[in-house]
Write a structure and sequence with these properties.
Layout (H helix, E strand, L loop, with lengths): L1 H58 L4 H19 L4 H24 L5 H36 L4 H6 L27
Helix pairs in contact: 1-2, 1-4, 2-3
């Protein structure tokens, strides 16, 4: 009788552990999806405010090369999102947009006092940049948590059985495939 009780006890503990892993996996997957959604919202908000800053920068006669870089980086960022590129490639495009944005903001603030048409979007973009950084931290933390569940030798089989894969973090990767960005070569 004690062997049966021991087997029943081990089975109850095993089933409880599996249920716990399933709940943690679902909660982590939901958190990753919510974190990515938050990040998308903030990135879209940033792309929506940039045209106001560009108009004000052009009116203020700021460095045209920096403004053109900002416009190009915004276009690249939008294209990467529309084509649903990998997160590493998208992070690279968003980093390029941040660099171009900060260059225009620095040039504008260094050129002396500017009007409300520049300072209003500049202040809003500063706030959005902080929210983007926070959203990236939230997403990457949640993605790392889910990846550790998926990569664990104990919980990994249960996670794979649920069909959940370890998500990629939102960080620029050197090996991001950007071949599809190149213009097609036409034979002359």
């Amino acid at each position: 009788m004690t062997v049966v009780a021991l087997v029943a006890f081990v089975m109850i503990i095993g089933i409880g552990w599996i249920v716990s892993v399933v709940r943690r996996t679902r909660r982590s997957a939901d958190s990753v999806a919510a974190g990515l959604n938050l990040l998308e919202i903030e990135l879209d908000r940033r792309r929506a405010v940039i045209p106001d800053l560009v108009r004000a920068a052009v009116d203020a006669d700021l460095d045209r090369a920096a403004v053109n870089q900002l416009v190009g980086a915004r276009s690249l960022s939008a294209m990467m999102r529309d084509r649903r590129a990998e997160l590493g490639a998208r992070a690279g495009a968003e980093n390029a947009l941040s660099v171009a944005l900060h260059e225009v903001l620095f040039d504008g603030r260094a050129s002396g006092p500017l009007g409300w048409d520049f300072s209003s979007p500049a202040t809003e973009l500063d706030r959005i940049e902080h929210r983007v950084a926070g959203a990236v931290r939230v997403y990457n933390t949640q993605a790392s948590s889910l990846a550790s569940l998926a990569d664990s030798p104990l919980s990994g089989p249960v996670v794979r059985l649920l069909g959940v894969r370890a998500p990629a973090v939102f960080a620029e990767t050197a090996d991001a495939d950007t071949a599809w960005l190149r213009a097609p070569q036409h034979a002359a």
